[in-house]
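User: We ran a pulldown and think these components assemble together. Before we commit to crystallization trials, I'd like a predicted model of the whole complex to look at. Sequences follow.
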Amino acid sequence: MRLACVFVPQLALQSALRRTPELRGSPVALYEAPRGRDGREGRARITLVSAEARQAGVRPGVTAAQGRATCPGLTLLPYSAADTEAAEAALSDLGFAFAPRIEREPARVFFEIGDLGQLYPSEAAIAQVIQLRAARLGLGVRVAIAEHKAIARVATRAGERVLIPSAGEATFLAPLALAVLGEPLDAELAAILHRWGLRTVGMFAALPAADVTLRLGADGARLHRLARGCSDDPFHPTLPPDAVEEGVALDDAIAELEPLAFILRGLSDRLLARLACRSFSCAGITVRLQLENRTFDVREVNLAAPTREVAPILQLIRLELTRKPPVAPIVGVLVVARPARARGAQMDFLRPAGPAPERLAATIARLAALVGPENVGTPRCEDTWREEAVGMDAYVPGAAERPSPAPGAPDTLSIRRFRPPEEIEVMLGPDGPAALRGKATTARITVAAGPYRLSGEWWRRDEHGATGFSRDYWDVHASDGGLYRLHHDRACDRWFLDGYYD
Amino acid sequence: MTLPLRLLDDALAAHLVPASRLEHEPRRARLATGLAALDAALGGGWPAGTLAELCGRRSAGRTSVLHASLAAALVREQAVALIDTASAFDPRSAEAAGVPLSRLLWIRAGARQALQAADLLIGAGGFGLVAIDFGEQSPHAPTAAWLRLRHAAERQGTTVLVIAPGRCAGAAATAAVNLQGAQPLFVAASGPLLMSLQTRIAVERAVGVLPAPANQSVVLNFLAHRTQ
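Assistant: Here's a predicted model for the assembly, 730 residues in total across the polymer chains.
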């Protein structure tokens, strides 16, 4: 089983740079201010530095002020657990882009690459593609491909892109310094090996296994097996999470929508990049706002169709927040995206080409952002005798496959509805309505056909406590030329204009 | 050697078209409306991949023509969208006219958003017909907006049908049909009963149709659909 190990060096620093990509290539350092027992923040110390900062002489461990003094152009970024968590999640998504199951470790993921050989010509190409995809997520990674997980883990400490052939582990490890064995090699063990005069992994591997076990115990034996290219560390795969999320903790509370929109754009950009990495689209968004008054404001934003475009998603979030603004300033934002497979469709040779599913989904999402998601879809006749009732279903682009209802007659007279029906005044004559007056028209009625009684729904109770309906419908030709449909509500003795034939 | 025109056979002469009546635009494919009389008047239907207008006052029969056109496009398995600015669409009427509702994309938009929504739909590509129903409101959009919509429709091969009380797209429309003089027909049973609506169509503009249909006036007859 061939395994790839993807490692993010200086994960915390890279996480911070994902949020501020404009700082890449400049001297940057990450600092942390430890809290004392009294809860006060101690002196800020630099924990990680970029290559540019290191070149300028800044080293981890110095104070922020010392770092600034060494390199005047140094940018100091605070450590953020939320950023690191988001970067870890992005790394997991990278793994799921290549394999259905991965194993996670801090700053590392492992996954099988056996099947990828059918897509890429060589393992070198696979490693290169992994690094390219990681760069799109804002992560610079090291990739190692080996037969065993532990060997691949060690190899990521040895170089940017390492390919270890099967049965070539010992040969690869032999010239490396003992320090690459990393985590199994603790300081005490390292000191012992140093006293024995051992400097490389090969020198350690050459020792007899039984003697090493006798002198160094179980830990030493495990390290020795690793040095010989053997590993009994199994692969523990996990399944992908149902949702992907990105969050940020704000230094200063935000009370207005504009700066919040700026933050949401960055978060949404990163979320959609992660979804795209796994060939997913976004089916819906949950925005969780942490407020200054220590409460949370959670908003659900549903999309009419899955999309990978940021603009309609942002527009919908903005509409939602404008409709009901948060009650207090915001100190933290978490955006969770629900992944959905992008719809594929097989075009029919004999049918007209319809809209491309991906573009159509994006268009529907944009339309929903423009007019509101409740106003985009396919119409549905409700199962009721109330004539004005209409429902809306989600528009399914592939609905062409569904059976159509029996064809009607194209020369059927259609009606246009007033929604809701407009209340009117009606003057009654001996044969029914004789004149009508409303917002839409005021006219004398020349012909009135009816009444046609419709009633039902006695088993339902509306918000006013009324049950059912009973109406007398009329088709009338008015002196203004309109051919109207109106009804008399027998329950409340009022007249309504339903629409007109057109 | 050239022959004088008078020497040509009458049958051959009938096929000659004077230069003054040559088409300014290449002949377009047609999108049948589903109504034979209207198709004949328009030279086969709405011009495909461009902008057409359907005008008329209240109860003139515009909605019936719209539903017939939507049904005809859906029967051809084209993708069809309706932008409804008045939320006046009646699914029962449409279904009775042969519109398979599950395949119709219905967008309820304000009059101001209608052109933007149409632009988005056309930009997506693949739609055969996009209808914008302004109901009884006359859209106030500059000529440039209509021209832009028409060019987008031409690029994507989408027919845009604008339904409004009067002409609004001007020269940007390749075809314009006005419905007028509608008369309902009631029959006497135990009382009067609405049977049908007769309306007269006037093709006011039809670029690329020969002979020019300026004076054509055809009657359409729509039958009332009864559910009770």
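The beta strands of chain B are 30-31, 46-47, 51-56, 79-84, 104-108, 127-133, 159-164, 175-188, 192-206, 217-224. That may be worth checking against your pulldown data before setting up trials.

User: Thanks, that helps.
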